[in-house]
Amino acid sequence: MKTDKHPIQRSPSEVRSNLRNLLTQKNLIAGLVLVLMLSGCAHYGTPKNNEIPDPRKADKYSLHDWDIAHIDSDIRFILTFSGGGTRASALSYGVMQELRDTKIDNNGQPGRLLDEVDYISSVSGGSFTSAYYGLHGDGIFENFENDFLKFNLEKHLIYRALNPFVWFSKGGRTEAAIKYYQKFLFHDATFADMINPDRPMIIINASDLGYGIRFSFIQEYFDLLCSELAEYPVADAVAASSSVPVLFNPVVVANYDTCSGMNLIGTTDLHDAVDMYKGQNLPVLISQLETYGEKDKRKYVHFVDGGITDNLGLRAVSDIMAVSGGPDKIYDGSIKPPRHIVVIMVDAATKSNEDMDVSNKEPSAIGVVGAVTNLQLTRYDADSMLLAKTRVEEWAKQLSTTEQPIKTHFINVSIQKIKHPELREFFNAIPTSFALKDEQVDKLIEAGRRLLREDPEFQQLLVDLRGQ
Question: What torsion do the CA atoms of 363, 367, 372, 373 make, to the nearest 10 degrees?
């Protein structure tokens, strides 16, 4: 990766400019915090999900229906985009560019590897990239950088939050953000607009604040709310996926009771899934999902940042597969099993450059919170990767036959895999925000491309596909 100068070298004028920007940003954030502290007004989320008496008759944006309608390839291809603000969005966008430019042969026809992607599971900042692609397809490569990556969204949202009309409105800061997303990014689109045979299924993930449940915006989960996903606004789902607690209000949906008593999640009995995946916390997941049936206690559900419960978007995929009955139920004879299962995980997590252990000075409260959060996410993410890889290999083993074995490819595109120490330090210093400099965005895009292109497992995938 070529740069005009040392990646962390800055001229005096750049230092002064960065300082001014930092002070301005700190003033904005301080003002926002002050508003949050002084504002005692209650905000009420407006549910936008429609009630339906029998969700089984809903227009399907579901895993099983998507498989039947969209998959006719020898490859089952899953992308996952992590959280991390614009940093995550840009890194994911770079990976998509590289997949677009990677040519393969598909059943004798030349094609792009990007066109083989079946699902994109995303959280927080990564959900902006996935949702934009789900709606605009290749239009993402024309407009996404200007519309989002190189636009100072953070400044725009903070100024909106400082507007007194927002303080005393019922919708609050999140509703103001949603209005912006609707106008400039998603244009009043719903999930029905993302049902397209030429694009992957976009799985946007959020966290259920009340019970700590990973919630995926697919019909299988909306079934539990007696609701239809197809008409739900994409902007609201993305806002839920990226709604950092305290800074933003939760996104609220209604939990209707018109379908009470129906068995709506994929398996005949939810508890059947436990026997198939012993030791993988499914009893906890199932007990959590069953709380949506307690209609008198859970009339509304409050969604916040998906990164809280699954910062990589990996666990959501394995959870959906498990509660749907596992691969044997999904590939029930109506769908041909693949020859390859490919998972590319884009991880934009950074490691702090600040080292509190070089001094006996007590770290600040913010420093302690940041360190604890990073420690928890690092350990949880490592566990998520191991669990996802294990499950993918188990699925491949279940579906393989002597005549047609299935090969798995698990590819990790991570900032921490950058080999050059100083360049890795440059990327680790990029904050989790929605206000990055153009230089940072450009380097993140290029990093995504290069990390994927030079990954040994990715190179082996290309060899296997071209050999086939």
Answer: 180
Measured at the CA of 168, the angle between CA 163 and CA 170, to 5 degrees, comes to: 115
d(CA 69, CA 350): 38
Residues 6+ apart with CB under 8 A from 79: 92, 95, 117, 119, 120, 121, 130, 200, 343, 344, 345, 346
d(CA 383, CA 373): 15
The token duo for 449 is: 């491309």
Exposure string for 37-66, b = 16+ CB within 10 A, e = fewer: eebeeebebebbbbebeebeebebbbbbbb
CA distance 346 to 29: 29
Q: What are the beta bridge partners of residue 344? A: 79, 411
Both tokens assigned to 298: 């859970």
Cα–Cα distance for residue pair 172/195, rounded to 1 Å: 31
Q: Which of 5-14, 231-240, 425-434 has the highest mean pLDDT?
A: 231-240
Structure tokens at 287: 């007990």
Which residues contact residue 118 at a Cβ distance below 8 angstroms, ignoring those fewer than 6 apart?
Answer: 66, 70, 71, 73, 75, 76, 77, 78, 200, 201
Give a three-class secondary structure readout of 194-209: HCCCCCCEEEEEEEEC
Measured distance CA(423)–CA(251) in Å, rounded:
37
- Average pLDDT of the residues in 223-236: 94
What DSSP designation does 424 have?
A: H
The C-alpha angle with vertex 315 and arms to 367 and 128, in degrees rounded to 5, equals 70
Of the segments 145-149, 178-182, 386-390, 433-437, which one has the largest average pLDDT value?
A: 145-149
Q: What is the pLDDT of residue 269?
A: 47
Higher pLDDT, 375 or 331: 331
Q: What does the chain come to in residues?
A: 468
Arithmetic mean of pLDDT over the chain:
79
The strand pair at 213-216 and 103-106 is best described as unpaired
3 state SS of 433: coil
Q: Whole-angstrom Cα distance, residue 105 to residue 111?
A: 6
Q: How far, in Å, CA of 61 to CA of 76, rounded?
A: 18
**21 CA to centre of own chain:** 29
The yes-or-no verdict on residue 284 having pLDDT over 90 is no
* Rounded-to-integer distance, Cα 33 and Cα 42, Å: 16
